[in-house]
Amino acid sequence: MKQLHFPFSLSFLLLILLLQCSKTLVHAQAPAPAPAGPTNVTKILEKAGGFTTLIHLLQTTQVDAQLNSLLNDSSQDLTLLAPTDAAFSTLKSGTLNSLTDEQKTALILFHVLPAFHPLTQFQTLSNPVRTQAGDNSYYQFPLNVTTTGNSVNISTGINNASVGGTVYTDNQLAVYQVDHVLLPMNIFGPHPPPPPPAPPKPKKKSAAAPLAALPVGSSDAVGGAITALGVAILVAFMGPFVWLDSEVK
């Protein structure tokens, strides 16, 4: 049997064509990497599981849209202290239903810190810690953080909570699990004492009423009456003396 011999150049050309085809097939089969989507707080909590009540509150108050906008549109760093469903179950029955929509919004924002805080940096926070709820004075929304070893404890002035672990972190958003719902003073605390009443303002002295204008010609009549009255008084006073003088003579 005769063997077929291919010229070297033709063999080399076929080899190059085979390699090129295989490279083209490999590139066609490999999927392109999907672009990273925008950060979505509720999707992060849904994936983690155990945050049904918190997700419901985030959606009904529209705080989730607010947080997502801060993260994706303004590149704001945030830390979310996320109470679990078990944490919400420790609240007294009807607590959430008794709140107004405004109070529910403030309650959720009270669990959001306007900065990214790794667990190792909680010990460097200055108390009271400011939250997205706003004013951190005593009767408003104070939040105090203390650390002991690796444990992080949070106090609101009403109750305490502990950080149970990291749910999510990407160097812009940190989500930590907490075992109690953080209850702010502004909603659940005693109302501040009313300010003392202001001292009464001194009454202004009323100006003397002006004398009524006399009719034209009345000044002469008044002057004559005064003169007649003076003469009458003088006569009454001098009368006895005149009588005694006539008797002496």
UniProtKB/TrEMBL annotation:
Outline the extent of the FAS1 domain: 38-182
Segments of skewed composition (Pro residues): 190-200
Cross-referenced SUPFAM superfamilies, in alphabetical order?
A: FAS1 domain
Which Pfam families has this protein been placed in? Fasciclin
* Keyword field contains Glycoprotein: yes
TM segment ranges: 221-244
Q: Name one GO cellular component term.
A: side of membrane
- Statement: the UniProt record of this protein carries the keyword Aminoacyl-tRNA synthetase: no
Annotated spans, Disordered:
187-206
Q: What keywords does the record list, in alphabetical order?
A: Cell membrane, Glycoprotein, GPI-anchor, Lipoprotein, Membrane, Proteoglycan, Signal, Transmembrane, Transmembrane helix
Q: Tell me the compartments it is located in.
A: Cell membrane
Looking up Gene3D superfamilies in the UniProt record yields:
FAS1 domain (2.30.180.10)
GO-annotated biological processes: plant-type secondary cell wall biogenesis
How does the protein's chain sit in the membrane according to the entry?
Lipid-anchor; GPI-anchor
Signal peptide bounds: 1-28
What the record says about family reads:
Belongs to the fasciclin-like AGP family.
Purpose? May be a cell surface adhesion protein.
Q: Which PANTHER family match?
A: FASCICLIN-LIKE ARABINOGALACTAN PROTEIN, FASCICLIN-LIKE ARABINOGALACTAN PROTEIN 11
Q: What's the protein here called?
A: FAS1 domain-containing protein
Species name: Handroanthus impetiginosus
Organism classification = Eukaryota, Viridiplantae, Streptophyta, Embryophyta, Tracheophyta
